[in-house]
Amino acid sequence: MRGDRLAELRKDAGLTQRQFAQQLHVSLNTVSGWERGLADPDDETKIWLAKWFGVSMDYLMGLSDTQSHQESQGTFFVCIRELPPAAERELVEFLRVFRKKYCL
């Protein structure tokens, strides 16, 4: 897994390493190790991360620069970077609650 991509996705979601670790129920050192390329999550966790961030496994693994297969097929996406900060925070919180509700 590309640790730099994981770090970028985490930052784009507006999360610190500590917040991200808490959401994943792992230690801060675990997240730091993944992002620095010192450790690699198991395959199940990689799949979960790709789904959680809405990116393809190919993107997360560094095999493609396209974040999502859906993106390349013309599916409509809301680009978080284009949202005002308050809307971005609201969307991230909604997604966190949604994932928890549906055990995603």
What can you see in these coordinates?
The protein has 104 residues and is mainly alpha-helical. It is 62% helix and 0% strand. The chain has helices at 3-12, 17-24, 28-36, 43-53, 57-61, 69-72, 85-101. Helix 1 packs across helix 3 and helix 2 (17-24) packs across helix 3 (28-36). The protein starts with a helix and ends with a helix.
In short, what is this structure?
This protein has 104 residues and is mostly helical. The protein has helices spanning 3-12, 17-24, 28-36, 43-53, 57-61, 69-72, 85-101.
Which properties best describe this structure?
mainly alpha, 104 residues, 7 helices, 62% helix
Q: Secondary-structure blueprint of this entry?
A:
Elements (H helix, E strand, L loop, with lengths): L2 H10 L4 H8 L3 H9 L6 H11 L3 H5 L7 H4 L12 H17 L3
Our estimate of the beta-strand percent is under 5%
Biggest sheet, in brief?
Answer: none
Secondary-structure-based class equals mainly alpha
Total number of helices:
7
Which stretches are poorly predicted, pLDDT < 50 over at least 5 residues? 71-78
Helix content percent band: 55-70%
Order of helices and strands: HHHHHHH
Taken from the alpha-carbon principal axes, the silhouette is: globular
Distance between the termini: 20 Å
Number of strands: 0
Radius of gyration: 14 Å
Tell me, rounded to a whole number, the average pLDDT: 83
